[in-house]
Amino acid sequence: MAGGTSPCASCKLLRRRCAKDCVFAPYFPPDDPHKFAIVHKVFGASNISKMLQELPVQQRGDAVSSLVYEANARMRDPVYGCVGAISYLQNQVSQLQMQLAVAQAEILCIQMQQNHDDNHMIVPLLPASNYCPQLDDIIISDKSHLLFATNYNNNHNLIINNNINNNNNNNNNLQQYYLSFANNSTSSSSTNNVMQDPLKRESLWT
Amino acid sequence: MNSSRCAACKHLRRRCPSDCIFSPYFPSNDPRRFAYVHKIYGASNVGKILHDLPVNLRAEAAESLFKEASYRIKYPVYGCVGQITMLHQQIQNAECQLARIRARIA
């Protein structure tokens, strides 16, 4: 033991002298032997040492935390480890994306219905079912202005410009709606990817 | 000596016995697969993990070990835990969005 201090958990387990510059000592204190035991069981002390030495000092703490997390996951689930958790979470994200798309389509339908109820006629260039199309991305602004829905997969541009003028008199001065329909490509099922693409970088561990 | 060694035994430069625990999951035509798991876990630990599992689960385990090792090599600090953190954030954002939209519908 160097300087009379207690050896770190790693050196205790490995039954060796804990050097002053021991790579494990800052991250595996002697009061938590289980932490090193579990990463040693899964990864091995030699591999952990190599991994830590390849990293800058300021990143080693986070690396140890993530290794401990992975080791615990592997002990709990020896078959799938962390990969099982990733699959489960990806499934949850997909389900939420679908729910979001349904909710956003619902809002669109409600707003279109409200526009219709305000005694403004929508010229039906599309079948009724297309009033609530499969949508990838919906940007909805205040209903008295522009309602804009775009399905990027199908190249449909459904633009409804509702320019309400509350000062209209009682003559048959109908509001004009612009309905443009571009590119009647065959519809394919939407993936409803309302989420942004995940960031392709390491996220912060706190 | 086995005329066709598995990727593990080729990497470890040893004989590949007929009951080699690695050979069903680390074929010789994909040396990277074993190289990755060996770099992160070590052959001995991989062998122990596989040995402790029923035979019908070993293929899945080998695959998940390879995926985790790949993540760790690509992201040396956070490994696949970075992906988990990101997915949690995505779920939280989506739930907030969903709650807001449902409040508008209600």
UniProtKB/TrEMBL annotation, chain A:
<feature type="domain" description="LOB">
    <location>
        <begin position="6"/>
        <end position="107"/>
    </location>
</feature>
<dbReference type="Pfam" id="PF03195">
    <property type="entry name" value="LOB"/>
</dbReference>
<protein>
    <recommendedName>
        <fullName>LOB domain-containing protein</fullName>
    </recommendedName>
</protein>
<dbReference type="InterPro" id="IPR004883">
    <property type="entry name" value="LOB"/>
</dbReference>
<dbReference type="GO" id="GO:0006355">
    <property type="term" value="P:regulation of DNA-templated transcription"/>
</dbReference>
<comment type="similarity">
    <text>Belongs to the LOB domain-containing protein family.</text>
</comment>
<dbReference type="GO" id="GO:0001216">
    <property type="term" value="F:DNA-binding transcription activator activity"/>
</dbReference>
<feature type="region of interest" description="Disordered">
    <location>
        <begin position="186"/>
        <end position="206"/>
    </location>
</feature>
<dbReference type="GO" id="GO:0005634">
    <property type="term" value="C:nucleus"/>
</dbReference>
Automatic annotation (TrEMBL), chain B:
<dbReference type="GO" id="GO:0001216">
    <property type="term" value="F:DNA-binding transcription activator activity"/>
</dbReference>
<comment type="similarity">
    <text>Belongs to the LOB domain-containing protein family.</text>
</comment>
<dbReference type="Pfam" id="PF03195">
    <property type="entry name" value="LOB"/>
</dbReference>
<dbReference type="GO" id="GO:0005634">
    <property type="term" value="C:nucleus"/>
</dbReference>
<dbReference type="InterPro" id="IPR004883">
    <property type="entry name" value="LOB"/>
</dbReference>
<feature type="domain" description="LOB">
    <location>
        <begin position="4"/>
        <end position="105"/>
    </location>
</feature>
<protein>
    <recommendedName>
        <fullName>LOB domain-containing protein</fullName>
    </recommendedName>
</protein>
<dbReference type="GO" id="GO:0006355">
    <property type="term" value="P:regulation of DNA-templated transcription"/>
</dbReference>
